[in-house]
Write a sequence for this structure.
């Protein structure tokens, strides 16, 4: 596979072995050749530039990363080059390696705010480079909101803090819902979700994965059927009634997309609107017996198992 990807002729196990050996040697020498791009986890036209940047990082502040996250970040972050600042808030700075790496990635485009409970993290502040550090806790709502009013709203928020469910939820509940902390199309990232299976972080995995699952269901509030008896969907109710019925307390109708990978989740903010359902053509087949919509509609013998709204739309 490596041989094919790199367009090197000859094929066969000998070439593959040679290339693997070269990559291993480059890794051992801490010199990552461009060959390394061919083993990145996302096989798209996008190259693995962020992965390469992390691998070649050589500033003094320690960088400690899960390498695959680089490809996911590259897929979902705002473009590296372009107009205007990218405003990024990171919860959890520690040694400051990620601060430096984000600066390398976005260059002058970056406006970075890091927060941490450890006063020593102040060393990563560099006002000349638009890198700011505030000391405080991700559990402190007042502190978080003061950071938002001083620097926000943000394009990207990364929670790489204490990795405890109650802290993740508290920060999310403070930072996600309002426009003062996040732009409408902002990106909220929760890192190191593998901690859900580590008892010193979470009592039970679902304390952490539920909050991600709830982002998924929050996208669907406008699909809800209010009553099975009438068969009326939420579309028959006013917005106020629907919101009261189904909106999630944190996400409301502000989740546009959710991308979940091993140990990292990306929540794309933005108004969720109900996708348009369409029917074309008239020659339908009714739902089969096992389907919940397989109900007879009075007076529609022969096609009675078509649901009422389908009949209306198809003009039958
Ligand atoms: C995983 S490290 C951050 C690593 C850093 N983002 C990086 O990639 O190099 C977690 C950091 O969260 C900080 N932290 C722990 N509890 C916190 C809290 N309640 N509020 C803010 N930061 C906290 C710790 O002090 C620690 O520096």
């Amino acid at each position: 596979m490596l041989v094919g990807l790199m367009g090197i002729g000859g094929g066969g196990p000998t070439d593959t072995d040679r290339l693997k050996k070269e990559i291993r040697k480059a890794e051992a020498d801490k010199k990552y050749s461009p060959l390394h791009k061919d083993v990145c986890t996302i096989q798209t036209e996008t190259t693995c530039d962020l992965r390469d940047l992390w691998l070649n990082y050589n500033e003094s502040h320690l960088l400690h990363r899960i390498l695959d996250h680089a490809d996911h970040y590259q897929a979902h972050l705002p473009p590296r080059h372009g107009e205007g600042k990218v405003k990024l808030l990171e919860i959890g700075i520690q040694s400051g390696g990620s601060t430096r790496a984000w600066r390398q990635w976005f260059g002058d485009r970056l406006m970075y705010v890091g927060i941490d409970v450890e006063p020593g993290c102040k060393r990563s502040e560099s006002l000349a480079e638009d890198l700011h550090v505030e000391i405080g806790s991700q559990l402190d709502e007042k502190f978080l909101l003061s950071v938002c009013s001083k620097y926000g709203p943000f394009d990207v928020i990364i929670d790489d803090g204490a990795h405890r469910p109650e802290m993740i939820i508290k920060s999310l509940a403070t930072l996600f819902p309002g426009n003062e902390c996040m732009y409408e199309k902002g990106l909220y990232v929760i890192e190191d979700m593998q901690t859900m299976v580590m008892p010193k972080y979470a009592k039970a995995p679902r304390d952490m994965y539920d909050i991600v699952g709830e982002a998924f269901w929050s996208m669907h509030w406008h699909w809800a059927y209010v009553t099975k008896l009438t068969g009326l969907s939420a579309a028959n109710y006013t917005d106020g009634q629907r919101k009261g019925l189904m909106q999630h307390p944190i996400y409301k109708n502000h989740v546009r997309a959710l991308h979940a990978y091993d140990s990292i989740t990306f929540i794309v903010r933005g108004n969720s609107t109900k996708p348009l359902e369409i029917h074309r053509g008239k020659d339908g087949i009714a739902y089969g017996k096992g389907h919940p919509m397989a109900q007879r509609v009075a007076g529609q013998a022969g096609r009675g198992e078509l649901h009422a709204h389908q009949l209306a739309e198809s003009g039958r």
Observations:
- Residues 1-11, 30-45, 296-316 have pLDDT under 50 and may be disordered.
